[in-house]
Amino acid sequence: MLKILRSYPDGFASMPDLKRDMAILATSGPDWAARAKRMGARVPELDLFSQRLVERVNGGWRITDKGRAMLELMESRPRTPQVQPEDTRASFASAGAIPF
Asked: Which of 2, 7, 9, 1 is nearest to 66 (CA)?
C-alpha cells in the first residue's frame, strides 16, 4: 500500500484507485509477491494504521512522511560486510586448509 500511495500525486489515492492498483499487484506474478515478502520481512512489526504510516483523507488514503521514511527503509538494500582476501585466507588457515 505504501508503494502504491507514494506513486500518486501528493501520496493520495482514492479507494477505487487503491483497490484497482492492489489487485493489479496481487495478480502480477510471483516476482512481486516474493519482493513484497522480502520487504515485509525487514519490518515484521509493521502496522500501517497504528504507526500512522498512512492517513484516511476524503474517501481515500495518503502516505505520511513517516510512511515514506518506512518505505525507504524497507526498499534499501541490506548492508553485508565485505570479505577481504586476507580475511578469507585467515579463516581457511584456521580451519587447516589454504586454497591459494
From this structure: 2
For residue 36, which amino acid is it? A
In a domain, 65, yes or no: yes
pLDDT per residue as tens digits for the range 4-15: 999 998 999 999
Q: How many domains does the chain have?
A: 1
Predicted model pTM: 0.69
> Within a domain: residue 99?
no
Nearest to 40 by CA among 7, 1, 5, 13: 1
Residue-number span of the structural domain to which 11 is assigned: 2-80
Residue ranges of the chain whose pLDDT lies below 50: 98-100
